Amino acid sequence: MTTFIVRRLLGAIPLVLGIATIIFFVVNLAPGDPADRFSSPSMSPEAREQIRVNLGLDQPIHIRYVRWLGALAQGDLGVSFSRNRPVTDIIQELLPNTLLLSFTAIGVAFVLGILLGILQAVRQYSLLDSIASIVGLFFYSMPSFWLALMMVLLFSLFASVWGWPIYFPASDIQSIDYAFLSPFEKVRDRLWHLTLPATSLALVLAAGIARYTRASMLEEIRQDFVRTARAKGLSERVVIFKHTLRNALIPVITLVGLYLPFLFSGTVFIETVFAWPGMGKLVVDAILQRDYPIIMGGSLVFAMMVVVGNLVADVLYAVVDPRIRYD
Amino acid sequence: MTDRLGPRRSRLALSALLPGLPQLVVGRWGVGGLGLTVWVAFLAVLLTRWARFAAGWGGPLDHQIASLTVVAGLLGTWGWSMFDVSRQAELERSGISQWKLAAEAFKKNRIAVIGAVVIVWVYLIALVTPLIAPYDPAMQGPLMGRLVAPSGEFLLGTDHLSRDVFSRMMYGARISLSIGFVAVGISVTIGTLLGAMAGYLGGWIDAVVMRFVDMVISFPRLVLLIAIVALFDTQSIFLIMAVLGFTQWPGTARIVRGEVLSLREQEFVEATRALGFSRRRIILRHVIPNVLAPVIVTATLGIGNVIVLEAGLSFLGLGLQPPTPSWGSMVADGRDFLLNAWWISTFPGLAIVLTVVAFNLVGDGLRDALDPRLRA
User: Fold this and answer.
1) Are B188 and B302 in contact (CB under 8 A)?
2) Which of residues 47-106 of A touch B (CB under 8 A)?
3) I need a surface site. Which of B100, B116, B344, B376 has the fewest CB within 10 A?
4) How does residue A27 score in pLDDT terms, banded at 50, 70 and 90?
5) Is the CB of residue A272 less than 8 Å away from at least one CB of chain B?
6) CA nearest B308 in A: which residue?
């Protein structure tokens, strides 16, 4: 088992290296000069050239690539142009916010999706099954930013206008008076702000998970061992939850790895809509401001999270399915 | 069946009168209903928008295409209906191919057929938009006309620049649909070719292609897309099509490779090798045609995927330049006016959802229809 994990980790290294290479060349070969940010048309050519030298842009691209990789190996992602701070500091500050949002969302999505999938499989072809399938298809086909806007419209704007008993904030991660709240109220305030963004993100994912769980459950229900379990006189609850579900969930685990890129793409939109100070909003803002070090550093962190997530999913899969061989 | 000639003559006459009607009469409600409604709708467009139709021939390209579509649609449904009736007997006699079996299975799936009809309609509306749109999508009305709620005059209201949301939505459909179509065309071509080569040839080609596929798949694609689109300053429709197409193919390549790996060991491929065919010929003529079924399914589902992605890029302000309307940028336009004018964001989003749902329904229907194991 340990060798399996070590080998997978070693295999991830060229993957990360390749991704870093793609990021570097996409950003650096695109038209536009990072030095433009720091220079004005009235500057002398010499001053302009000096800026290029200071940024290391006078070197040919392969030298810059090697230098960037060297710095990367030491955990140095450069200094942000727009914020004048090391990129690693900014990422350290914002990454927890993104992780909070995405882990909540994926947790809710899996619980909701799996429960719905089981219900649909057990009551196949019932009214509930067809309604859930159709509604799920709509959520599955929905752009997450539009769903987020509709949630804001309903549960934030209209809810407060129409005087609903509860409404949710439309933006930001905490209230203005957060620092003055008691510990209990702080948790409540965080959850209150988390509800809409996490739900918008989770619903789109849950629709796909429910679909997958339903198919997987239906496949397992037809197996002989389920018939045996029923023939033994076990209660339907034990048959479904103890025998069928355990086996049906094995392929669902692979979805964790598969959904991570979608999840992080989703956070980009959700963070933009809800002004959530996280990695997605950071990278979008950086791209619009041509802040090259943040673009490269931020995308690399996203990619690495996906790679690590895939690794975890692989290992989990091997743990729960004894048929997978480790060698 | 009894005497075919008599009823066939009468059905031909029916067809000359109203295309689609003979198909409806014999219970083929899907194609019949579609043919009939398309014909009636196009005729209505021709009669009510005669001035715009006539002016279209000398107008800009999209206007010419719209007028041409109306003529082609009218003649096409007519011709198809006649041809269909006269060929029906022949078709019944001829053998049943794999594709025909699949088509029969697809037609039994009512929801998928509805999805297909919706897609055809969305495409037709997008094509004839210049003839039927009530207003110019870029025309800004008087200041008093800002944020007008949906009414008889403005079906879906107006936006913050007094532009008609309904007209802009119709024009926006053209952007979404054409980008979806072209991007998926690019990705399917590359994905199928590379996937088939990787699967059939194996060796270092396989290793290189599949490592690259792994890399692209484990990357949040949106970040890559935003970076490319933002860094290339010119936000032309062709750049967006190309970027979406060139980042979409790895999924297709992976599926095709998997299919080809099992196909490679089958007798008929072995036979082509024994016959001494070149590898190019084996891949192009014998391997690829046999993996088309999953490719068609991924392409259909991919169009929905690309439409959502393009809308996302436009939403972030990285799509086409204003005032070109696109569904995603319309949703973004309405963001600041959500409370006062909810219609600006809501309706374009609904259009996206409806179109993507239709593509997903057809994709699922095709998956069930094209897989003989799932055919009941």
Assistant:
1) yes
2) none
3) B376
4) confident
5) yes
6) A143
DSSP string, B130-171: HHH-SS-TT----GGGTTPPS-SSSTT-B-TTS-BHHHHHHH
| Chain A environment of B339 (Cβ under 8 Å) | 153, 157-158, 161
Cβ–Cβ gap A15/B304 under 8 Å: no
CA–CA separation, A28 and B313 (whole Å): 21
Fold for domain B143-374? MetI-like fold (1.10.3720)
Which of the four pLDDT bands, split at 50, 70 and 90, describes residue B1?
Answer: very low
Q: Where are the domains of chain A?
A: 90-320
Residue whose C-alpha is closest to residue A73's, from A23, A20, A123, A34:
A20
Give residue-wise pLDDT tens across range B336-375. 888 788 888 889 999 999 999 999 999 988 888 887 665 5
Pairwise CA distance, residues B322 & B329, whole Å = 8
Nearest to A141 among B211, B334, B360 (CB): B360
Q: Domain spans of chain B?
A: 2-95, 143-374
Q: Cβ(B317)–Cβ(B332) under 8 Å?
A: yes
User: A287 vs B211: CB contact, 8 Å cut-off?
Assistant: no
Note whether B220 contacts A295, CB cutoff 8 Å: no
